[in-house]
Amino acid sequence: MPPSNQTRVLLLNAMEKREKTLFRLQQGFELQFRLGPTLQGKHVTVYTNYPASGELFYRRKFRALSWHNPTGKEDDSDKYCKLDLQISGSYQYYFSHENEKSGGGYIVVDPILRVGADNQVLHLDCVTLQTFLAKCLGPFEEWEDRLKVAKESGYNMIHFTPLQKLGLSRSCYSLADQLEVNPDFSSPNKKCTWSNIGNLVEKMKNEWNMLCITDVVYNHTAANSEWIRVHPECGYNLVNSPHLKPAWILDRALWHLSCSVAEGKYRDKGLPPSIENDHHLSCIRKIIWEDIYPKIKLWEFFQVDVNKAVQQFKTLLTQGNRKTKSDPNQHLQIIQDPEYKRLGCTVDMNIALATFIPHSNGPAAIEECCNWFQKKIEELNAEQLQQTAYHQEQAVTCLLETVVYERLADHGPKQGSVSRKYPLVTRYFTYPFKEMALEEEELLMHQPDKACHFLAHNGWVMGDDPLRNFAEPGSNVYLRRELICWGDSAKLRYGNKPEDCPYLWAHMKKYTEITAKYFHGVRLDNCHSTPLHVAEYMLDTARKLRADLYVVAELFTGSEELDNIFVTRLGLSSLIREAMSAYNSHEEGRLVYRFGGEPVGSFVQPRLRPLMPAIAHALFMDVTHDNECPIQHRSEYDALPSSMIVSMACCATGSTKGYDELVPHQISVVSEERFYAKWNPAATPSTPGEVNFQTGIIAGRLAMNRLHQELGAKGFIQVFVDQVDEDIVAVTRHCPNTHQSVVAVSRTAFRDPKTSSYSKEVPQMCIPGKIEEVVLEARTIERNVSPYKKDEHFINGLPNYTVEIREHIQIRESKIIKQAGTAIKGPNEFVQEIEFENLTPGSVIIFRVSLDPKAQEAVGVLRNHLIQFSPHFKSGSLPDDRSAPILKNLFSSIASKLTLADLNQVLYRCDAEEQEDGGGCYNIPNWSPLKYAGLQGLMSVMADIRPKNDLGHPFCGNLRSGDWMIDYVGDRLISRAGACAEVGKWLKAMFVYLKQIPRYLIPCYFDAILVGAYTTLLDLAWSQMSSFVQNGSTFVKHLSLGSVQMCGIGKYPSLPNLSPALHDVPYRMNEITKEKEQCCVSLAAGLPHFSSGIFRCWGRDTFIALRGLMLITGRYLEARNIILAFASTMRHGLIPNLLGQGTHARFNCRDAVWWWLQCIQDYCKIVPNGTDILKCPVSRMYPTDDSPAQPAGTLDQPLYEVIQEAMQQHMQGIEFRERNAGPQLDQNMRDEGFNVTVGVDHETGFVFGGNRFNCGTWMDKMGESDRARNKGIPATPRDGSAVEIVGLCKSTIRWLLELSKKKVFPYQGVNIKRHGKKETITYDEWNRKIQGHFEKLFFVSENPADPNEKHPNLVHKRGIYKDSYGASSPWCDYQLRPNFTIAMVVAPEIFSPEKAWKALEIAEEKLLGPLGMKTLDPDDMVYCGVYDNALDSDHYNVAKGFNYHQGPEWLWPIGYFLRAKLYFSRLIGPEMYAKTVVLIKNVLSRHYVHLERSSWKGLPELTNENGQYCPFSCESQAWSIAVILEVLYDL
């Protein structure tokens, strides 16, 4: 049984059809279905035919699975439905969306096999199978002695060819009666019954620990089966399959030709009975074309009787039946006669009458018309004649190929002269009547009581589509003689369901039930030609009787995809694979690697992981009973080494009886009638009919089988295949728990050593670790006994070859090894160098290897310390008595002292942040630097490598080559002091052991240590966040890590100092000055470009991101400090754009102050007792607009006064020139751009500002190209009243009004001086002004005559909101951009819901991209969606990235768009709300996918058009992550 709690996750995506994908699972696994990005938010139902607990399986009975939503919230991105897999077999699932099937596939659950009286589990990879031809077992009472050979040879499964009564041909696979035991097994005094066989099978299971399987043959029955004579409808006959009549006529003609050739009647035409050369073949071709085809006129079966058709047409015309053509595409064509009578085909007279219309009713006109019609019919008949000629040509070609193979080819059966026993070609149909002349026989074809007994034989068709039945109508295989025919077997005709042929289905069902009752498994014979629906039905029947049925099959489809259709539909447990398909030892080794196991040193996979497509489990056979004899193809010396290579495969393995005895010919399933030898320990090599360990390679086989079973049972699941030289293959099987290995070195002998030269020099081999023992050394040797002579009664092998075998010896006792030295390949890595002296062709040697003792101990201790992260590491663990003190504590308790700011250091920090601290990210040679210096940098790479086990990746190469990366991880944290250093010390202590293990294991254990630590740290991060995060979906949790990623403390403070009077401010000791300094968390705008130095903190970015990254995640104190730090830098009533620690601040943006005020409002609403912040002291850096920067504590004011100052200054009007104006401040800005103007329109209440030479909102791209002449010109000045600023201002005024009513804010309005007089404007008045004017002036009315519209000529979209009001270039007001959605979220009260909804629908249609919002309407003439900041050109609109906000899709506005849709859809009604929720989930699923796949674990600043990657964008942007969190919070 698999370890419990293994879970696999299958992501469902719309229209994904996975019928050709194999998903293999084990009993005890849980399978979860989750929705992929294309289905997120949609109402999807998953159906499966896997039965509910306690119910029986019915293939056509599907049930809907119920969804589990772990968070119980509207954000159900984590929801799943599941199956607990307890029953083996093939199961189907499909899913539908809005009652339409949207995709589906199959899963295959492996059976659990059990042996012994105590029913111990026999793992599929432990199977060692041997095939027996049942008829060679002799009388039943002798079976035990014969089967004992397999038991003594170490096999644990027997495959019997069918045990039923055989047909006339005596082929093992041509069964006369599927329900009756072969009478050959009975002796005169005792009849052999199914229960006798069943008892023996049971005895073998309980006493010999062996299972038995047998074939089921569904495709055909022996042509002489009694039951098919009574029920001819069970085959393809000329009554139920009249399309075979032409082929039958041809078949009879060829039989008559064959008889005439046999009688010498064609000698005069150059064709004697004995066919010996190409001339004879040419004569056959000539005779068929000149004598046979003209006589049987096959074309007539496909043609129309011209005279009859013309007469019928004429009659209809004369009666005045005129037609008009209903469909002009309908043309006259031949309709095949369903009865296939000669000249029985017809045409559609209605089409004829509509096509050939006489120009009058006169007899001449009718005659002319009939002539046209006749000409057309003759044309159609000529086409049929041509088509038949193609078929005839193919038939002759195929017939001659068969003659060449059967009579002339060296590798063929050399059948000799043509006779009735060996006709020219095998007959395709049965003919159970007296022979007559061909003309008389043709008459029988039309007599149903006779024609029903002409049954089509079965066979196979080279290169045919296995999913097509070649005997059904539409196939011309029988006519074209393309069938390689089994003349002893009739093909069975099941139809599509049991009702189509009740007797056949019932008969075969009984046959299946007998088989399943007495045997542990079945081999599906001729599986690729068995109709899938038949095999499905029969296997369902079998599994009802035996749930854990082992089902194997051999498929010759030629394609893995086609193989998978059979494996998935039928639930095949193992596919038979042949080592005989390997043309050399290299290919043989490749097959071992292909068919099982994982690479040595593979990563430990998590228990919950995606369900990956698999390849079918293999039953790898060194030879099958259908293969030609390997001794004839290779040499007798190759039997041992090739079977050794196969035996080392990590899958089921097998062989065929006769291989081990070195039988030098193929044991024919048709003609072999001798019996197998019995087991007798005392027999001599020449004793007839008896074998023992001296026979062939049986002694070697026992050792190989034992080893194969041990490796499978003990978890040696890792495989390495080394091609030492052209003949030598070394296969390693490795156990990832104990790190023991078994290495088998085989020297193959594909060429006969007696006639081919093999090198005496065998390359030296290096085996890493310590060789504990030689498990086995064996050589194929010749011995002096009388040579091989084929025995008449018993199947015998070559007596003069055997194996010299020695087991469990030390290296010094070996006769194959010259010497073994120990070399040290590096610290703690021992390698044994093996020099061979007797590794002759045909020999094998197997070593058991462990790590050297010191490394073994280090691994054990490592595993012991890893148990805290996963019970997987219990096996192979050792107690640690001498460990470093820090390892005595659990990692979780060491990590628990980390704050979220510490976690930023441990997990993240990009290169620019690290460089500021004097470090940098780890750079992997020949690859690239890691994205982060913290653990996330490593985890992002390993998350890609781990599932694929990509051990060849440069990352793994770097770990194997040296300790640099390992040291970097620990040392970087230790240098940081505090709690971070403790984590570093724990890692370093673990790495002490890591460095003592072999280099090839380091990637796997490095990964295990880091995965354990990383997952613990993530849990710790979430535990310090809000309940919204802790109880949220995986998506919410992963987004919330953006808060840890962006919020950190560098070596140098980024924020100005807070007031000394403020409580709870974090301090640290400055390493250089040794003085106490504040160390508040600051928020980076984006990584990597805006993460360090003066470019880290921006007023606008900080406060757009603060609600999502800090307030919603519960980081209230840090949010408070950031709000107050920015408050301290206020000047001119504005908050800086670029903070520059306050001393280098630029006050050139109009919107940052409003985002800051919005954040204070959000803080007051979200944080418990949030309004307390209004009384917090703010140390003013600039007490007046003109004062130089003051140290903290010079002048403190409560925050509410600073807020009031901002409001007051705006209403009064702000006008100043930036400090240090000129190129030293901004090398692109024109002089006028440094003049900042901001004010409030006293009539409308709208905030306005800016001029056409500066940009005061987030769309702040300044032209930089001299060449394009856009330098110093803002691309998007957005002067006037920008829509989002008006919304933010309205939000603030409404809030301050509420606060002043509650007496929490001490001001009712603002006082200004105007025209020399003092004036008071109350917040209530200001609020009403905006409310009264906003929609009137911003909404672009649907009514062209709207009196509020100043510039009707500039309108190009109606029903939208303007981007600004009063811009210096009025057309800019009318551009469709996403900014109005921000106003909708912060101040929804200024929008009427119907108009808002209309505008949102237009924005959705025009601006919504996969991840972001287009920043400009694509219909706008300056739209360009691809941002390239490096490209300078003459193009004014794009040079040097001038189109930064003129089309590229920015992420952060999408958050406001979705939140606005959510808000207004609630007002529109429940149906619209439900639709909006679906849209939101669907859009967010794309962000989820991006977040999961991004090595930065973030969301980008922007993308190019239609979501394409933009190389100039920040890879992870604070506000992009924040807004998506806010959407999920609103949801």
Written account of the structure:
Helix content is 33%, strand content 17%. By secondary structure, the protein is of the alpha/beta class. The strands form 18 sheets. The protein has an eight-stranded parallel beta barrel with strand order 12-13-16-22-23-24-27-28, surrounded by four helices. It has a seven-stranded mixed beta sheet with strand order 25-31-32-33-39-35-36, covered by helices on one side. Helix 6 runs antiparallel to helix 8 (363-408), helix 29 (1099-1111) packs across helix 39 (1518-1530) and helix 36 packs across helix 37. The mean pLDDT is 94.
Short description:
The protein is an alpha/beta fold.
Helix percent reads 25-40%
Mean pLDDT: 94
Structural class: alpha/beta
Whole-angstrom Rg? 43 Å
Low-confidence runs of at least 5 consecutive residues: none
Question: What is the percentage of strand-forming residues?
Answer: 15-25%
SS element count, helices: 39
